[in-house]
TrEMBL record:
NCBIfam families, per the entry: TRAP_S1
Keywords: Signal
Highest taxon above the source species: Bacteria
InterPro entries: DctP_fam, TRAP_DctP_sf
UniProt-listed GO biological process terms: transmembrane transport
Signal peptide: 1-20
Protein name: C4-dicarboxylate transporter
A Pfam family the protein falls into: DctP
């Protein structure tokens, strides 16, 4: 009798289907939850993964460094498994990803869409090795950084001199120094308060962050290149996944992540950043802010003043065993579409 009862239980266990394994992905970034990065890119990306996987992939998003640490530590957080996916800037980890820095050289990027496509191609052709410890989901640019100041317009090379401005990257800081300004490093969330207290005179920043960080409330003067011309500085950004987390997923779920990442996600980032830039400019003007375009003559003067930044970067990268001159030329060729 006992044998028959155990046999029946065994048969029942074999007959039951094995439940499909579910995966929760912890996604961390450094901006507020209302920022376009989360609302228009990360959340739709997570929604698409959930839908296509039949809810086997779910996301938990942690904005504004809710997992602790600083933006510069996000790379280590994803590598060590504190987070499964992070959206951050390679430039926040100074010296760690030297090759992709080519896209942060001065006057490289004129918009987010074309710039992001170019940066993704550069990554695929020249910089994959320095991200080998991670699963790269997307790499894009912020579309270029305008100058946002509280009191003094920046229209000419002379206007940069003496200005204390927030900078997001190493090359951005070098660009400011070459123009005569003083760079100050701080997370985006601290910039508005720093300007209001007079700690800095303004910031170099992409239009996309102006409204989420309320930068427009303290900086009413905004300077930028004419439409279609490259910005003095830019920030490369990336969506990285913990490699072990990805490798541990079933093949069908990996395929879903790959299908919604890469070039398709790069396009979304670029499109959203350009749309948000247009929206930010409109709202800045509507609220009484001023937007000043650099003249062609001043653009030429600024490019001449920052030529040393290219030269230093080429020398430093070459000293590390890479062909710095070739990499800088490749970046500029891709960025201009030639």
């Amino acid at each position: 009798m006992k044998f028959h009862r155990f046999a029946a239980i065994g048969c029942l266990a074999v007959a039951l289907p094995v439940a499909a394994q579910e995966f929760t992905i912890k996604v961390a970034h450094f901006l507020p939850p209302a920022a376009p990065a989360q609302v228009r890119v990360l959340q739709p990306w997570c929604d698409a993964l959930k839908k296509d996987s039949g809810s086997r992939i779910a996301c938990q998003i942690y904005p504004a460094m809710q997992l602790g640490g600083t933006p510069a530590q996000l790379v280590d957080q994803v590598r060590n498994g504190v987070a499964d996916v992070v959206w951050t800037a390679p430039g926040y980890s100074t010296g760690r990803f030297p090759l992709i820095e080519a896209f942060e050289l001065p006057f490289m990027i004129s918009d987010a869409s074309s710039g992001s496509r170019a940066a993704w191609k550069f990554y695929q052709q020249h910089a994959q090795q320095e991200f080998s410890a991670f699963k790269m989901l997307a790499l894009h640019v912020d579309g270029g950084q305008a100058v946002h100041t509280a009191k003094k317009e920046v229209k000419s090379v002379a206007d940069w001199k003496g200005q204390k401005l927030r900078s997001s990257t190493r090359l951005g800081a070098k660009t400011l120094i070459a123009l005569g300004a003083t760079p100050v490093a701080m997370p985006p969330a601290q910039v508005t308060e720093a300007i209001s207290k007079g700690v800095v005179d303004g910031a170099m920043g992409a239009w996309e962050v102006v409204l989420p960080t309320k930068l427009d409330e303290v900086a009413k003067l905004h300077s930028q290149p004419p439409t279609g011309q490259p910005y003095p500085s830019t920030t490369v950004l990336m969506l990285l996944m913990n490699k072990q987390k990805f490798d541990g997923m079933p093949a069908d779920l990996k395929a879903i992540i790959d299908r919604h990442s890469g070039a398709e996600l790069v396009e979304r980032f670029g499109r959203v950043w350009d749309e948000e830039a247009t929206n930010s400019r409109k709202k800045v003007l509507a609220s009484g802010g001023q937007i000043i375009d650099f003249t062609p003559a001043e653009m030429a003067a600024m490019r001449s003043a920052t030529a040393s930044v290219d030269e230093d970067w080429i020398r430093q990268v070459t000293e590390k065993g890479h062909d710095g001159k070739r990499l800088a030329a490749a970046a500029r060729t891709l960025a201009t579409g030639q």
